[in-house]
């Protein structure tokens, strides 16, 4: 498939309307940016419309200030049959100067969907990690999803 790329970067400007009660960018907006970048990365990799199935290991490390230039970087770290797992870093900096800061990181998982009605998951081109770093990232993504599936199962068992 042509045009496939493993990494994708999107940039956003934190607007005054993105503010939370403490005067910083609210977490929901950061998650929206992550979802948008993940969507662009997933459809680019798979060539199919894709849906978010899970977000795991999300950590808000530092706040984003209004008027910051925000950079969202996605890196494909694992593919299953229909799923694509991306490691996402969100960094921000004052566009008038200053250091870029890591603000949020997570793993987001998309599933490629076919065109039939109702739509069902379809296979994606595989990503095969070769370097040690890539193998570690793939293992990390799988661990995060195992943990989050485990939490779901526990909640279901408790809630009945
Ligand atoms: C995504 C969806 C089609 C999966 O349906 P499903 O019946 O679970 O389908 P499958 O069992 O075939 O699973 C498809 C893939 O999802 C993965 N998956 C399912 N639940 C998951 C979870 N909790 N975490 C991570 N991956 C998960 C499976 O591992 C499988 O991946 P693989 O093909 O690489 O092995 C369905 O859950 C859905 O439509 N969800 C809503 C998506 C949506 O609307 N997103 C936007 C919300 S903001």
UniProtKB/TrEMBL annotation:
Keywords attached to this Swiss-Prot or TrEMBL record, sorted alphabetically, are:
Hydrolase
Q: Name one Pfam family in it.
A: 4HBT
Q: Where is the HotDog ACOT-type domain?
A: 4-116
* GO molecular function terms attached to this record: long-chain fatty acyl-CoA hydrolase activity
Q: Which BP terms from GO are recorded?
A: acyl-CoA metabolic process
Q: Which domain of life is it from?
A: Bacteria
Q: Which GO terms describe its cellular component?
A: cytosol
- The family this protein is said to belong to: Belongs to the acyl coenzyme A hydrolase family.
- The name on file for this protein is Acyl-CoA hydrolase
Q: From what organism does this protein derive? A: Aerolutibacter ruishenii
């Amino acid at each position: 498939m042509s045009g496939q790329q493993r990494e994708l970067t999107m940039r956003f400007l934190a607007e005054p309307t993105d503010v939370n009660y403490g005067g910083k960018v609210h977490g929901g907006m950061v998650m929206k940016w992550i979802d948008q970048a993940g969507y662009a990365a997933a459809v680019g990799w798979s060539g199919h419309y894709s849906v978010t199935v899970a977000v795991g290991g999300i950590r808000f490390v530092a706040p984003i200030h209004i008027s910051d230039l925000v950079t969202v970087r996605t890196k494909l770290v694992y593919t299953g049959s229909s799923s694509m797992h991306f490691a996402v870093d969100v960094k921000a900096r004052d566009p008038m100067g200053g250091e870029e800061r890591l603000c949020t990181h997570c793993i987001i998982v998309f599933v490629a969907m076919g065109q039939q009605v109702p739509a069902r998951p379809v296979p994606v081109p595989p990503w095969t990690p070769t370097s040690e770093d890539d193998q570690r990232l793939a293992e990390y993504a799988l661990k995060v999803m195992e943990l989050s599936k485990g939490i779901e199962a526990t909640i279901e068992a408790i809630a009945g």
